[in-house]
Prior knowledge:
The chain has 168 residues and is mainly beta. The chain is built from 1 helix and 12 strands; from the N terminus they run αββββββββββββ.
Amino acid sequence: xxxxxxxxxxxxxxxxxxxxxxxxxxxxxxxxxxxxxxxxxxxxxxxxxxxxxxxxxxxxxxxxxxxxxxxxxxxxxxxxxxxxxxxxxxxxxxxxxxxxxxxxxxxxxxxxxxxxxxxxxxxxxxxxxxxxxxxxxxxxxxxxxxxxxxxxxxxxxxxxxxxxxxxx
Length: 168
């Protein structure tokens, strides 16, 4: 073995020769996208969904473990999943929906709150740095699915998603 000095892709783009002048994602400002939802007067069956936010088109980084959700008590044996809808990438590849990519079977029986991303572990995406990169043509929905039980009338969801976008 030998002692090595290696460089990240971004470091190479900044400092190594030849310097790459193409689009380079160097630093972004984080954006906080709040969401609020109150269920109407009729309950929703298992499989019901709530669209939390619609991420804009383009290159958008979602940081699930910086994002947060709170909920009112749904009742005994109630769980929810959080994921994203299907979308089309820049190269026209279709990306299928993943309804529980970020969270799977979160217990919402009693009122509570949590950071998103409890199921978004390193192995999920081969260590991407803790974010999910969306390269969508027209945007993508982040949604919650009632996975166990029902969503009761007047149930509440509040929270925020933390994203950053590449400048055009």
